[in-house]
Design goal:
The chain is mainly alpha-helical and 183 residues long. Helices cover 67% and strands 0% of the residues.
Amino acid sequence: MTCINRRDLGLLVLRVGTGAVLAAHGTQKLFGWFGGSGLEATAAGMEHMGFKPGKQSALAAGLGEAGGGALLALGLATPVAGAAAAGAMAGAVSVHAPAGFFNQGGGFEYPAFLGFTAAAIGVAGAGRYSLDHATCHVLDRPWTVALAFLGSAAAAAAVVGRRAQGQDGGDDEGEPPEPEPFD
């Protein structure tokens, strides 16, 4: 008789919920689904927020969110998925940080929560009810955790740092860009 493991069931619920939110958010950027603006408008917005080049930044953010979220929900390549989503959320946090912490004031609460949750799942692993488990963790090895998070942290630091350097003078009109809601 197979016993349901509550910890693995909890990871499944957390993975699917977080992954679905991230995937939906990313598809707004990439395809304009769920009321999103699509890639071209997102690229213009990214450029306005100081992420240059805008199209590559929008594509990277959308893929980090949609791809990372989908992989988290499936429990496949979980360290890479968690790291990619956390890295994408680091960029969103940098946009919202000037508005403070709480989301109701445009702050970074929401993207930080998504990023920390994705990172925690990536570090903890997907659990028994996952494609990682079904494939004998071929894409979920200890070295992939370290490599994925080091790569994501380096990429996020470079992107956020480059944006910060460009923000020193504000945008073309002399004012810092406004954050987009729920980035």
